[in-house]
Amino acid sequence: MNNEQNDPLKNASKIPMIAVLLTGAFIAILNQTLLTTALPSLMADLEIDANLGQWVTTAFMLVNGVMIPITAFLIEKFTSRKLFITAMVLFGIGTLVCAIAPTFGVLITGRMIQAAGAGIAMPLMQTILLLIFPVEKRGAAMGMVGLVISFAPAIGPTLSGWLVQSYHWSILFWILLPIVILDIIAAFFVLKNVTTLRSPKLDTLSIILSSLGFGGLLFGFSNAGANGWLELTVLLPTIIGVVTLTWFILRQLKLPQPILEFRVFKYWVFTLTTIIGMIVFMSMIGAATIFPIYMQTMHNFTALESGLMLLPGAVVMGIMSPITGRIFDKIGARYLGIVGLGMIFLTTALFTNLSDSTSMTYVTVIYSFRMLGVALVMMPITTAGINVLPRHLIPHGTAMNNTMRQIAGSIGTAVLVSVMTSVALNQGEAGNIGMVDAQIKGVNTAFMVATGISFVGFVLAFFIKSKPKETVNAETYGVNSTQQKTATDHS
């Protein structure tokens, strides 16, 4: 393969771009979990209850999930430089609104503005990195994305727990604001336009259907964990989500320039790797939700201590993600997927026998090995799926991949939390064991379900094809010299 032809930017100009993109992604993802341990302080200050308080996270997730599918359209409509700066300006405005918020309503408004920016920034960042690197170096590029995705959400609860002990909760937004401003200034000077503009027409109905479809599903699933699956607050948005999403998909298949291209699923490898990625994300997010509940409610650890328990696993994943990216570039995703999902399956099974005397060391060590397995799978699987798409479908592939992961995370959390709570309730009502033991039984049962989900992913990993020994040519991945020239011309 002619690397120069497939590499529209010189290595020297890539480094500042990568730094700007990863910084933006880091603070966007960090922001998702930054308020988790600060919630009690925030609730007391704004005089709200827990049901209302959890909306600082739910509202962010919903708007984020609604924006992600639309980014494929935006990437083809606007230059990558203009779109990234706009996304970060939105995020910055939202951060400022949150920092000065005098009431809960203003805080939620700020979170929604933040989420709109973050929802654009994440798929855009992945798309740009995939376009500026040739196919044989994409694993290393996506490994850096894996570092950000793994480390940012884990450091959030620990950082917020430490800061809120000494300062007002608004400090969490004030410390982000200067970083956002510096990133916007840097992006103005160093970002290049690398995407191919196709000037798609805005289909208003598709935007509405996408928002109702994905938003309804995410809202329904997020409520299911706490309220059960048969509540109106779960059934109604889920039904609306399914109906409008079906309508949205059928409409996209008829439009000459769809908002989100569902034909990416015609590529078998993309479909397989997306399903595996969803399973991994479902298992990862669900466990990260259950562990703090187990540690704090049933083990009497503080929020900071439970955050510290998750931190070594995040560090392991962060360190390994760039390494596994480079390994992927040499051997492909098959063996990484088999080993990684095997590790996830075994370590999840080891969490099915927790008790009120299980040591923090045991949980921390096993969780760290579990995250090592996630590092072996997450970005290599994602990159393998994107690599089979033609260049013009890469924005749609990254948007679809991020959207499916978001939905999988919501489903995984809802399923595992609802299993945990229902088993605990049934055991408690039976009266055979104490309340704490009943809750722990619920946690163990939830991990049994997670073990089954992980096993399905492990089996699917064997269907990933090995990387061909011969050099992969650009035509295999739908990248041709004309498309590369177009991208270079735009820069």
TrEMBL record:
It is found in: Cell membrane. PANTHER family: MAJOR FACILITATOR SUPERFAMILY (MFS) PROFILE DOMAIN-CONTAINING PROTEIN, MAJOR FACILITATOR SUPERFAMILY MULTIDRUG TRANSPORTER MFSC. It is a multi-pass membrane protein. The chain crosses the membrane at residues 15-35, 55-75, 87-107, 113-133, 145-165, 171-190, 202-222, 228-250, 270-295, 307-328, 335-354, 366-386, 407-425, 445-464. The keyword NAD does not apply. Keywords: Cell membrane, Membrane, Transmembrane, Transmembrane helix, Transport. Pfam families: MFS_1. This is EmrB/QacA subfamily drug resistance transporter. Residues 17-469 form the Major facilitator superfamily (MFS) profile domain. It comes from Alkalicoccobacillus murimartini. The keyword Cell membrane applies. SUPFAM superfamilies: MFS general substrate transporter.
